[in-house]
Amino acid sequence: MFLDNTLLFLYGLDVGDILRYFWAFIFFDFIRYLLLDLLVVFVYFPKRFFSRHKRRLARLALYHERPLVSVIVPGKNEGRHIPRLASSLELQNYKNIELIIVDDGSDDNTEIICRQLESAGSIDKFIRNDIRGGKGSAANTALNYANGKYIVHIDADSHLDDNSIETILLPFYMDARVGAVGGDVRVANTESTLAPKLQAIEYMKSISTGRTISSLLGLLRIISGAHGAFRKDVLDRLGGWDVGPGLDGDITLKIRKLGLRVVHEPHAICYTHVPVTFSRLAKQRFRWDRSMVRFRMRKHLDILLPSKSFSFKNFLSSFDNLLFNVLLNLKWWVYVIQLMIIPAARENIEYIIFINYILYFTVNIIEYFIACLVYEKTLMKTDLLLIPFLPLMPIYTGVFIRIVRSYAYIMEFINKSSYSDPWNPWKVSKISKQEKL
Amino acid sequence: MRKAYLMGNTDNNFDLSNQVVQPITEQQAGIQENKDNAFWLIDSCRDKDASIDIIKNIRNQFKPNVYLRPIVAIVNQNNENIFGVDAVVTASKLNEEIINNLISRFEPINQWIDKAVRHSNVQDSGYVFKILRLIVSREFEFVPETSPQKLLGYTYPLLDLVERQDDNSLFKVLDLLESQSLISGRFITKAHFCCHCECAFLNFKEVCPQCNSDHLNSDELIHHFKCSHVAEASEYEQEGEMVCPKCDRKLKHIGVDYDKPSIVHHCNECNNRFQEATILTQCFNCGRNTEPENQIVRSIKAYKSTAIGSNAAIYGMDSLFSKILQPKFNLFSTKDFRQLLLIEKERIGRYKISTSSLVFIQFDIEKIYISLGANAHELFTELSEIFKSILRSSDVISSQNESLFILLLVETSTQQATVALSRFEQGIGDLLTHNLGYQLDFLSHIEQVSQETELDQSIDEFLKPNVS
After folding, report:
1. B425: domain range?
2. ipTM of this complex
3. CB pair distance less than 8 Å for A431 and B225
4. B118 forms bridges with which residues in the sheet?
5. Segments in A192-348 forming alpha helices (H)
6. Which residues lie closer than 8 Å to A432 by C-beta, 6 or more apart?
7. What's this model's pTM, rounded to 2 decimal places?
8. Which residue(s) pair with A153 in the sheet?
9. Number of domains observed in the structure of chain A
10. Who's near B322: CB < 8 A, 6+ residues apart?
């Protein structure tokens, strides 16, 4: 009955009505997500196929040189995750690795666990900072003691796939202009509750496919802190990380500003633990999204302005980010308000919502399968078990994430709330705010 | 009326009457048993070492009347410390009144000695027994004192000069006496001792976990809030100022724009940087490096006698070994043994058809106490099993004292006894070498029982070469 009425409603629409009712999908989401995803099929796969010889040579060069790789892990109260992380490093097929853990003022048993692992030889260096200084300072502490030619930054609640280190290093050997490589981040705890399952699908779309495309277009704007590889000389030149939050996006931009390339490697896999409840997830996203405003629109506004060091790609990368996050979010509210205002739309609101749902659902299915294609041989059974949850995705990304994001932007624009985030120690936040960092 | 006996290399002319203080030579002191002796007065003003030798000599006598008596040293200054004495007096203050005070002060000790001597005036050759008697006779608590001259770091001054195997023996013996409830210990402190040589002087040092070198420097880490830079303090130093090497800003106030989250050690030998240094202990005596957890930790206690100990100090100590042997073999008392030997002598003399043998066995049980302390019990249990291997139910065993055992093997020729004894010696030799790490002095003798056998005479003859 409802379906019949929906079809009747749809048949009764002319082109003008369709544009009026569904412009948000047609002009923004369809182009931004679906059309770009198709780039993967028509550009990424052929490119990857034809560069396989180059990859093989890169691998040979890597093993010929065998550079020391410093894996650095800053964290607070993450002790319980460290043994798993340490053992995943011992299992790497690339062996010349040193593991440096920095404890940023933990108040649990992290120090005891890590000291034991250090004396057992599973951790090469453990530095304990009694006073918390924030994630950036912890990462910089690790960097200060790192001896490797490359630095791999991993979040403490993550662990690596066996050939992850090898794979993430290959882009450095394929192109000398590469300054940093982002690794693929996949969800480790999909089996726990609903929230991680939906995040897993989201990560497949936005990280595995999304960043592969950005990388392809030369627009990659973030290397996630959970899993990224950097040239040590580049980090030294930059003086390491600056004050967070959002320091992974910040360092990526700084590397881009040096004229170096940043790329994404979808087959270098890191499994990370994501929030298991929606309220925790909301908090996490609140923090991430605020940092977008803080870093793109305040600290690195110069990228968008014409200057001596202006780079079109850097401009596009930041612009794309602002457009599709800040503006599209705004657009969503405009769209919702518009539907409320137009009487004809208001009368048929249930059909419009349902049709929108079907459209977004379809896009999600297509995006999901494209992500599966990107995974190639790294596709796991657990990834396929996510299929039954695809129907929930339009609500998750279309409503939940949008609301959190809008709230975060408003709070950051209005009262710069990221400066009072307890994620940083207050003394650091105070200075950051004073100095407008 | 008791009086003090003065010894030592003295040219002081003390104004003391002969009724109160009587000079005596060292030789006389060892031989004579002066029952009116209140204490030995040793002049150590001129030659401290010589006086210590005299004190040692007294304490190492076997006569309770001699070695148990209190000793008072005359010194130049009141704070002089002399081991082995009961009291010190300064030469300038020495007068008859002080002597009389000391005489009355030591009266309870002397009365106790008299009582012990009245009961039996045999010589106390055993170190363990001498220590027990010294503790019981003094009645006060023996509190350990720290001493840099002693390998073990602690000593009990009054007990210190009684001759023994090594410094450690005293601690082992006190441990043994406590385990037998003859003395009771009160916890004072715990101390670490070298696990190789038992020396108390250990140097605890922080070393590099990579190369074990103790040539380390420490540096503070500095976190500059503005730019998140973290490095060692030395990297921030620029011409007397603290400047951030990342952002070139001057550091102003700790806690405001920077802080010091931790300390990092730097090894000057292997360049390693680390936070958690390894702790090693180096022994001042043998020089070996050992982890502190592998060193010996011992409780240091103060000791005083118990009621059982007071009793044992007068009537003699039951040998621990005898106590273990008793339920297994029905150890006969000397008196009963003599009686049984008498009957056997008569029987053999009368029927003249059988031969029996007497076996004398002596080994230094005390050396085992001293080596093993409270752990001696386990060794003695094993030792008793070896005794069992040569004894039949018809045989008779008696222990003459702690170290001398006499066995009457009935219907056993001397040849048969020799075979049994050699088996026994072999067993004991293996056991002791294995447990103590050295061979114990061991004496044995076999004698055929005849009508003429005289036990005392045989014992004297058996012990004769030992005495010389």
Report:
1. 318-467
2. 0.78
3. yes
4. none
5. 194-203, 210-216, 232-238, 247-257, 278-292, 312-321, 328-341, 343-347
6. A243, A419, A424, B225, B226
7. 0.67
8. A72, A228
9. 2
10. B331, B399, B402
